[in-house]
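#dry-run=false #mode=assembly
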Amino acid sequence: MSEFTSLDKLGEFGLIRKIKETVKLENASTLVGIGDDAAVLEPGEKNIVVSTDMLVEGVHFDLTFCPLRHLGYKAVAVNVSDIAAMNAIPTQITVSLGISARYTVEAIDDLYEGIRFACENYKVDLVGGDTTSSKSGLIISITAIGEVAKGEAVLRSTAKPNDLICVTGDLGAAYLGLQVLEREKQVYLDNPEMQPDLQEKEYLVQRQLKPEARMDFIHELKELAVKPTAMIDISDGLASELLHICTQSNTGAAIYQDKLPADQQVLNTAEEFQLDPVMCILNGGEDYELLFTVNLADYDKIRNHPDITIIGKMTEASEGVRLVTPSGNAFPIQAQGWTHF
Amino acid sequence: MSEFTSLDKLGEFGLIRKIKETVKLENASTLVGIGDDAAVLEPGEKNIVVSTDMLVEGVHFDLTFCPLRHLGYKAVAVNVSDIAAMNAIPTQITVSLGISARYTVEAIDDLYEGIRFACENYKVDLVGGDTTSSKSGLIISITAIGEVAKGEAVLRSTAKPNDLICVTGDLGAAYLGLQVLEREKQVYLDNPEMQPDLQEKEYLVQRQLKPEARMDFIHELKELAVKPTAMIDISDGLASELLHICTQSNTGAAIYQDKLPADQQVLNTAEEFQLDPVMCILNGGEDYELLFTVNLADYDKIRNHPDITIIGKMTEASEGVRLVTPSGNAFPIQAQGWTHF
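#status=ok
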């Protein structure tokens, strides 16, 4: 006999009840959470920021190597990352799920365990959502709400020429983590007896499966008394995000290849896969680090910060968006983003 | 040569740009809309309500008889309906789409035309979203945000015994509209030469394809100076929604079969399809009318309102939730909701 429970048995309202029972509310601004037509928030004298992201099975995740618990965590983290990129503090999320028939109650529990763990970690309240069936696979759509003092939201459109371009952490690891996982999946499919040895790739795999939103850094910026002139989170890749800032701020930019931060595992693994490490860093995406610009006057506040790398500077729009190689050559940076319809 | 444009050609950012260009912002509380990591809202001294709904192709809609423009409109309307059911005024929405390869740019334009039309009609600002590809069919996930004065939100959990139970408009039409459309689809599949004659079913079909959120009635309630004790919108069906109010308010209820409001087309068409009209009214769903309870003291304010029908009264929880027939028999009302996993 199976130890799993079909969702059919539990029904929609049973599933919602189960979810509601395990959700704790932490934010004073949350008046009413799950269980009514809408959540009710009382933000006080703040601005509200709202962001939303959809993850689709087979497009954004592959459950053969992504445990549901990690997926739940990641789905929250990527939304929190958008709120962080506004210089705001996340306070609430809503979670909508489309679930196909092959999922059990236990599987959805695993997913919510990851969601709840992320909610605790980022101190956000799960206040509502929708659960529905789907014809194929799992769909997760999350909306995150955050607060920021009036006038303190940091947009993409407000960078200026001569601002310094900075990134947090290192780049390219999540993309190479995905390459490693896909190779191991293929090895496993060819020979199910083989046990993957991912020890040397642990950092890459973790960056892919369990990315963190850089909320820590938003608090850090306040301590440094630095307000970026523009900011965006790196979900599609550094090149794509830099182009967003430049387009929306009507500027150009120059970034320096030898300044781009990467972990040693990124460099080693790119070589192993015969991939150009610079392309991995520029276009890999899913690192959820922050790309931001600061006024030159703030240089002394950030120059020695261990988590900030200054990678270039903003320029006039007429100079374009360029990557400068160690030999001093400059190449235009191209847009990416999905074209996988 | 085809006159349609593949989404591949436009790309993700092209699609977002197209959407952004055609969106107008109307609400003073919208500081920043589409185009950043999150929207920025400045609600002032109000409460915020947030609701979300997901529509999945093949589960919630069938594009053989639902034009994309209508679908876009409906997707917004059902979210606005949730905000209305909180006694709040909708102000912003975010729209996330999962789009499969068989959709063209023109198809997504049609969808957004319906979304924009609904935004204008309900005076809400489209402030953000996510567009992604999907392996099968179209997925629409919308989050709606609204405002309500502090303390004026109406919950499901605050009805009291002896409160009057009221509904707006009439019920059962959207469900029978779906039956009509599915029959016509079958006729068409059997014989593509046949032109459907839907003239006598126009009201039913319109209620299914183009439901309206009862925002008009929320404004009306203010004019009547009536604050319901509890309220919910009727998406799953009268029976299911009444059970939600009773469970969450810890009450029972008695509703009277001969008071249930239905259009003559509902009664005629139920007979034609050999369906019990009472079951269509109780469990049909998707009418998006409002079910609400009011204190007896408000009876005189609502008794002659042409759009309100008093269908019963709340009771102690021990009396259960019952339907009283014209002959005076009482039957317990059962829960529904989807079990279509």
